[in-house]
């Protein structure tokens, strides 16, 4: 297989500074939206799609600007706050292939406004499969097309209204050459013999069901590992839930209401009154009295929860135990996992793509913990398919994992 294409080092990328047809006005009313829908329905070929969120500023992951570009239609910038129902636009684009960079980030917020693709080309995922070491939109555009995109507005507050013109220009340029990038990556994947792999991956993204709500999301609090006692753990939960409620009501990012570090510090200290809470790092004089009372109320709830109702020290776990425990629980399973990981890593290197894209590490763990009775390639492949692996992945990894299982041996402890 060929290596990924790259612009020679001595060739400086050409800055992409202005949309080729100029900066379009933002679509903010039904009349302009209807005209945009008609133009994009009449366009041809794939449609480049991007969305800007206000992560770190607002609650949730909703879109605050949606950018589109299609041959024959040009570029459109749509305000989904002013035009919250874009299902008619989604239907107008239903037969087009959508070109998205990092689809897993943008598709959920697009679905919220009624836009969902039926056919997809993810340029970030294509870059991973093609073996590019850097797959951000900027590096990919430079390496593949020889064009540089300015990224200085990537982390701004996109809920700002009106949006400044430099931000809008940045947003329009994100879809300016996305279809050209798609075409070049398709050629590269085809040359490497990986185009079929990528198409299977794209189809699986489109077909994936909406993810179920995360169980106990408060357990993702940073530095939670410092909390050992269950009473302190329930304090983290109550503070997290209070913060989430306040953030949702105020429509601000939870981290702007109270930091994870402050939550953990308060849970460890379990202060008994407001002055004691103010002495905890993260609850200083800048926190107003009403908020301090809310945090104290959360801590009081944590104190009053009966012992039998305290959350377990570790999250309820589905599937195999953590790999660090395998050597003690099942040494042969640990040997299978070690061999399978090494085999997958070597195979991924041979095909110049990340091991986690060749096969999800969780699937390797699951099939290693509970292998088929006959650990041949067909049985391992069937087990992987049952766990959700794509056929191209099964075809590649099932034989090497099966061989690793056959060769797995429990290490013999040295005799005294």
UniProtKB/TrEMBL annotation:
Record bears the keyword Ribosomal protein: no
EC number: 3.1.13.5
HRDC domain: residues covered: 229-309
Family matches, as InterPro entries: 3'-5'_exonuclease_dom, Exo_C, HRDC-like_sf, HRDC_dom, HRDC_dom_sf, RNase_D-like, RNaseH-like_sf, RNaseH_sf
Gene Ontology MF terms in the entry: 3'-5' exonuclease activity; nucleic acid binding; nucleotide binding; ribonuclease D activity
Enzyme class, UniProt record, top EC level: hydrolase
Keywords of this entry: Hydrolase
UniProt-listed CDD domains: RNaseD_exo (cd06142)
Coiled-coil region list: none
Keyword Hydrolase: yes
Region (Disordered): 308-327
GO terms classed as biological process: nucleobase-containing compound metabolic process
Highest taxon, organism lineage: Bacteria
Protein name as it appears in the record: Ribonuclease D
Source organism: Kitasatospora gansuensis
């Amino acid at each position: 297989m060929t290596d990924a294409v790259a612009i020679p080092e001595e060739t400086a990328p050409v800055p992409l500074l202005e949309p080729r047809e100029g900066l379009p006005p933002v679509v903010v009313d039904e009349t302009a939206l209807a005209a945009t829908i008609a133009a994009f329905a009449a366009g041809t070929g794939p449609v480049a799609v991007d969305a800007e969120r206000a992560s770190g500023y607002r609650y949730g992951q909703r879109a605050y600007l949606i950018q589109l570009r299609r041959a024959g239609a040009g570029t459109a910038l749509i305000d989904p706050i002013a035009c919250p129902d874009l299902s008619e636009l989604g239907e107008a684009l239903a037969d087009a292939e959508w070109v998205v960079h990092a689809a897993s980030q943008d598709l959920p917020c697009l679905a919220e406004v009624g836009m969902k693709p039926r056919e997809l080309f993810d340029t970030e995922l294509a870059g991973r499969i093609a073996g590019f070491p850097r797959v951000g939109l900027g590096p990919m555009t430079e390496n593949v097309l020889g064009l540089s995109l300015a990224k200085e507005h990537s982390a701004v507050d996109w809920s700002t209204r009106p949006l400044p013109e430099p931000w809008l220009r940045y947003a329009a340029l994100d879809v300016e050459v996305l279809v050209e990038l798609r075409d070049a990556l398709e050629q590269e994947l085809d040359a490497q013999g990986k185009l079929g792999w990528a198409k299977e991956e794209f189809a699986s993204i489109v077909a994936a069901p909406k993810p179920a709500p995360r169980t106990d999301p408060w357990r993702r609090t940073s530095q939670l590992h410092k909390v050992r006692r269950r009473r302190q753990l329930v304090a983290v939960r109550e503070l997290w839930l209070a913060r989430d409620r306040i953030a949702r009501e105020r429509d601000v990012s939870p981290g702007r209401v109270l930091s994870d570090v402050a939550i953990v510090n308060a849970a460890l200290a379990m202060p008994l009154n407001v002055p004691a809470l103010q002495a905890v790092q993260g609850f200083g004089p800048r926190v107003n009295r009403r908020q301090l009372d809310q945090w104290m109320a959360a801590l009081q709830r944590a104190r009053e929860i009966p012992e039998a109702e305290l959350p377990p020290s570790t999250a309820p776990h589905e599937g195999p135990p953590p790999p660090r425990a395998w050597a003690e629980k099942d040494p042969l399973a640990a040997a299978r996992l070690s061999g399978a990981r090494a085999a997958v890593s070597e195979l991924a290197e041979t095909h110049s793509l990340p091991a986690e894209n060749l096969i999800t590490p969780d699937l390797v763990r699951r099939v290693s913990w509970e292998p088929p009775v006959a650990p041949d390639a067909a049985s391992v492949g069937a087990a992987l398919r049952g766990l959700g692996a794509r056929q191209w992945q099964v075809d590649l990894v099932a034989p090497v994992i099966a061989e690793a299982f056959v060769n797995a041996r429990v290490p013999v402890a040295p005799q005294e």
